Amino acid sequence: MLKSLRSRLVGSYVLVVALSLVLGLLTLVLVIRPVLTRLSYATLLDKALPTARLMNQLAQQEPSIAELRTQLQEQSAEQSVRILLAEARGRVLVDTGGTLEGRLTADLAAERPVADARYAYGRFHTEGQSLLYVAVQVAIRRADTAMPRAHLLILAVPARSSWGILRELLSGFAWAGLVMLLVAALLALWITRSLGAPVKKIAAAARSIAEGDYDQQLVIEYPSEMAEVAASFNQMARDVKASRQTMRDFVANVSHELKTPLTSIRGFADAIVDGTAQGQAEQQHAAAVIRDEALRMTRMVEQLLDLSRIESGQVTMAHDPVQVDGVLRACVEGLSLAAREKGVQLTCDCSPLPPLRGDGDRLAQVFTNLLDNALQHTPAGGRVTASAQVVAEGASRLIEVAVRHPGGGPPGVVRVGFLALFTLVQNARAPPRAGAGLGLAISKGIVEAHGGHIWAESVVGLGTRFVVRLPV
User: Could you tell me the pTM of the whole model?
Assistant: First the structure.
């Protein structure tokens, strides 16, 4: 029940309107109740004054109690009020309700009456009923008394309870509430329809991506929040497509790199088995090739396992103080011999840097891999430059390590993601070296584990630059 977005929104609109109606009705009752009470007192006073004048006129005729009762009952029926006539001492002489005669008015008081020069008003209870009253003073000389005496003429009506007021207001509120609920439901349906259509588009596009169709681009202009979601979805679709393509290329390259040594091993093994490799020297050469290719495959498998462990978070990085400039210089020094043998100039340009917390050995692995990759793609007479400096990125200070070499890449400037780095390497003009893509993918995991990021920029004719940024 109410599982869909549309039903939840419609239900919430209806619930809000219903609660608003109930709260409005209760507030109205609380506001109207004292107003009705004051209005009742005013109405009673308006009726009491003419009745008091009538009693003063009757007083000239020295009426008996029975005559007074008759007159007061007529006034009670005409004015729809309950009338009491009481002595000044408080004893009730006449009660048109017929139940309070002979009792004292003080016994009936539910609250202290409020009085001014002309009248008093208040509330009393009798027979389980609450009554509002107004009392005025009249002078009556009855047949059983010698002189006029002050009497109290009391007019009373039942006090209206909150529930009574609520029942009276409920009918009008019910019709108004039904109209408001209907309008709210229609409005909610219209709003949910405008919201539901973009959501359905996004859901359909998501299903298409799950089924392998990554060419999904949503066009949603309103509401603005949905437009932002659509833009994020489009970016996600492009990233997923690029990532899937990168993974396919990665698998294809790894398969190719594994197939090459396997072909060599099988070929030389067949040469030994079928006797093509005759003589001890040829057999030793074949065995040496098999051993070298097996070692090459072992290194590749170890790199794959290392990459898998890094990607799954199984490798724990150290958090020791690391001087990046020292690590970079050591890596450059370690590869300087290989650079001289190839006829490549390898230089390091870095000033003293603040330390960062990380794994020095793993960072050395990253820098060595980038330098080794640059040497492999730099022709004789070329130059490879390693540099390190502090840069600002927003409010953060980062250490930037860059390795630049003259090897080209794809046309234009390319800023590739972590796992796509090997694609740039394989597209370079120099012959590809087995395992380069794995090394760069491992470097990606190590840099990410340090909270940094890595990318490559390549311009045909200007060279390629690998950049690593790590937080200080």
Answer: 0.48
